[in-house]
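Reposting from the mailing list since nobody answered there.

I have sequence plus structure tokens for a pair of proteins and want to know whether others read the tokens the same way I do. The first protein:
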Amino acid sequence: MPNFATAVICGHLGRDAEFKAVGERTVISFTLATSRKVKDTESTTWWHVSYWTKTDKFAAYLKKGTPVLVSGEPFTREFDKKDGTKGVSLEIDAKDVKLLGGKQEGEAQPAAPSRPAKPAAVEEDSPPF
């Protein structure tokens, strides 16, 4: 019997996304905050997201506070904290990232991506919009 997990989360970026070229592909890394409110108590869960793509079309849009919808494979990663104790990080290997919302009143247009876009022949599962 096959084993797999999938998750769909909607939240806001905790900081500007980081872009790293790896060969012909780009890995986009960012943190995403999701919130849950029970009665008068609200808690925030932080997710670390990695999205492998063949384009950097997100460069101008993935800024701190941007609302996005992410779907992909969730997993945990254990790490050593600064105080020497073990910590666990929630991670998602994203298969799809969608930008949510639109331009807010008084908000400037995003800057153009720092690198030119790849040729139109680049394959993508779906556009980010």
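The second protein, same order (residues first, tokens after):
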Amino acid sequence: MITSLNIKNVATFDSVNGVTIADLKRINFFFGFNGSGKSTIAKYLYNLSLASSQQNTDFNQCSNLGYDTTQHQIITFSEDFIEENFIAKSDFKGVFSLNQSNAVIDKQI
């Protein structure tokens, strides 16, 4: 499990210190103003999940503690994720929507 990220020398993060995000949990939510780095963090995490030959070199100075490619799966819910899984595909396992026909389930939730 990733416990810490250091995002450095990419987008709005400086080349000297960057930013360290510590005490990460199994599931993390990043929120903030436009331009605060949320998408850059998501792109870095997605980049980690790619084969080394496909990784973007813009993230070469970024690092993390705890990621093990053999035991962990990174899923970043970003604009790219939405495009790849909801717009480009017609189905997505495990995702359903609640509407009037799902009234019983809706009440249980």
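Reply #1 (J.P.):
I read it the same way you do. The CA atoms of residues 33 and 99 lie 32 Å apart.
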